[in-house]
Specification:
β1 and β2 form a beta hairpin. By secondary structure, the chain is of the alpha+beta class. The protein has two domains: 2-70 and 407-444, no CATH class; 71-406, no CATH class. The chain contains ten helices and 13 strands. InterPro entries: Flag_bb_rod_N, Flg_bb/hook_C_dom, FlgK, FlgK_helical. It comes from Croceibacterium atlanticum. Belongs to the flagella basal body rod proteins family.
Length: 445
């Protein structure tokens, strides 16, 4: 009897000690990123009687049968989904803000208006040297602003491409680590502290990966995970101990595409998707900016071809190149401006060709198109800012929900410390009673 009591008390002390260890681990990692609260499963140990005494019960105390993580797979999945959506929105918003600055701060619209204003002033006295010089200066400024905007767009696109490549490199590191964790999980004991730590590591890596690209996850009974890129129909990134490499390709227009293990995929979430969307916007913006620049080049040069310079010679192209990145002033001599119509003599005050240029610029709607372009990108930025704020709220709510369920509550852990400490002390007292009983029995014998 005394030996049974001693065995039962000792098992209770071991179970309480295990629970105390887990509680202390929770407290120590209360602020650790990715840590999920642990709890112990304690079960009663019983054994039936011998062959001839099957109805007897031999009490054997308790034991720790496993360490559980207080993780909710649905809430974790929601965190990954919202992290992916927010990362895409963050990257796209940053890209759009940089593109807006590229064209808005340069002042192309204002430069077009100023050029048109200089033409109007020149029409009052088309042979005035200072007024003609002002037209040349205004046009040169406009050409320079087009080039600066194009260069700024190129710089913004380079930044997006760099960020996307950095994301690809980071994703490959994460998938390799996930494959390694899978191998370790396949060997870890079920319900062990090692398994719990590995599952924390797995979930942390999955969350990091979802910030780069949206993923689909399938979990094995032993905790291993199979990961697919861009949803359930995408290529496999991680399976068992194997990881596929993600690669990025850059097209001639600057847009990007991705493959995993040689299979193409298009991410709809994560920073890769945001940067890809930003580059697509940049390509469209550059194309529309080129159209505005070409309309100015066409209007100016066609007018030059239809008139004569101040010395009566045929007008020559005033602008060279094409597109916002190629537009340049062909000459800087104000006398080369073809303000008079073909057939007019030298120093003609006939400004009909100049009037035709002003009309052509107005018909090309360069200023209106530029204004519409600026308004559109500004509207997109404002819209994405509102969307981003909403996604931040959603992601925060998902994380709070997970933290409430999986995080460490120090007040509860403090209460558990007292409870398990009392259980440990009570088991110790039971062991002491067993010893006293044993000593009494020995003395009687």
């Amino acid at each position: 009897m005394a030996s049974d009591l001693l065995q039962i008390a000792a098992s209770g002390a071991r179970a309480a000690r295990g629970a105390l260890d887990v509680t202390a681990q929770n407290i120590a990692n209360a602020s650790s990123d990715g840590y999920v609260r642990r709890s112990v499963t304690i079960e009663e140990v019983t054994a039936s009687g011998g062959m001839r005494r099957v109805h007897d019960i031999s009490l054997s105390g308790s034991r720790v049968t496993g360490i559980n993580r207080n993780a909710d797979m649905f809430r974790q999945s929601e965190v990954r989904r919202t992290v992916s959506d927010l990362a895409r929105s963050d990257a796209e918003l940053t890209a759009l803000q940089n593109l807006e600055a590229s064209v808005d701060q340069v002042g192309i619209y204002q430069a077009i208006v100023e050029f048109e204003g200089s033409l109007q002033e020149l029409s009052v006295d088309p042979v005035d040297p200072s007024l003609r010089a002002s037209v040349i200066a205004a046009l040169d400024s406009l050409a320079n602003k087009f080039e600066i905007a194009d260069s700024s767009i190129t710089s913004a696109m380079s930044g997006m491409q760099f960020n996307a490549q950095a994301g690809v490199d980071q994703a490959n590191v994460i998938t390799t680590e996930l494959a390694r964790v899978n191998l370790q999980l396949s060997r870890a004991g079920d319900g062990s502290s090692d398994q719990a730590s590995l599952l924390d590591r797995r979930d942390s890596l999955l969350e990091q990966l979802s910030g780069i690209t949206n993923i689909n996850t399938t979990f094995g009974t032993n905790g291993t995970v199979t990961v697919q890129a861009a949803g359930a129909s995408g290529p496999t990134l991680v399976s068992a101990g194997n990881a596929a490499s993600i690669a990025m390709a850059t097209a001639a227009d600057g847009t990007i595409s991705f493959t995993a293990g040689g299979t193409a995929f298009t991410p709809s979430g994560g920073s890769l998707a945001g940067n890809a969307l930003g580059l697509a916007e940049a390509t469209d913006l550059r194309s529309r900016l080129d159209t505005v620049a070409d309309s100015v080049i066409s209007a100016v040069n066609n007018s030059q071809a239809s008139g004569v310079a101040l010395d009566g010679s045929a007008g020559q192209p005033l602008l060279t190149g094409s597109g916002a990145g190629g537009i340049q002033l062909a000459f800087s001599n104000p006398d080369g401006l073809a303000t008079a119509p073909a057939g007019a003599g030298a120093n003609s005050r006939d400004a009909s060709n100049l009037d035709a240029l002003r009309s052509a610029l107005n018909n090309s709607e360069a200023a209106d198109d530029m204004n519409a372009l600026l308004f559109e990108i500004s509207s997109k930025v404002s819209s994405r800012e509102l969307t981003n704020e909403a996604l931040e709220t959603i992601a925060s709510s998902a994380r709070i929900s997970l933290q409430e369920q999986a995080g460490v509550d120090l007040d509860k852990e403090a209460a558990n410390l007292i409870r398990y400490q009392q259980a440990f002390q009570a088991s110790g007292r039971a062991m002491q009673v067993a010893k006293e009983l044993f000593d009494t029995l020995v003395a009687i014998g």
